[in-house]
Amino acid sequence: ISELDWNNGDEIIAFYERNQLYFDNYDSIQSKEKIYDFIDIKTRYAYQLYYKSHFDKLERVIEQIEELLPQLEADHSHYKSLDQHFRFLT
């Protein structure tokens, strides 16, 4: 992840889709920081899908973010920004 160019939309999409099985398996995550990481990566992926008009894939990712976001407390340091990004996508 550290070598990923977060400014390159094609790279973000390719990374996520190569690791989609991992990112779709979020049901057992307990750590708030891990939940944040998953939401962050899914949000970045969703933005790239949005910008590239891949709306057929976007809906599923939005639903996953919607499931994960309530698992962070509203006072979590990243909750507000993630919530704003999510609302933009929906």
In short:
The protein has 90 residues and is mostly helical.
Give the termini separation: 26 Å
Largest sheet: none
Radius of gyration over alpha carbons?
A: 12 Å
Q: Structural class given helices, strands, pairing?
A: mainly alpha
Descriptive overview:
This protein has 90 residues and is mostly helical. The protein is 67% helix and 0% strand. The chain has helices at 9-18, 20-24, 32-51, 55-68, 79-89. The longest helix has 20 residues, at 32-51.
Give the secondary structure arrangement, pairings included.
Blueprint: H1 9-18, H2 20-24, H3 32-51, H4 55-68, H5 79-89
Helix pairs in contact: 1-3, 3-4, 3-5
Write out key terms for the chains shown.
90 residues, 5 helices, 0% strand, mainly alpha
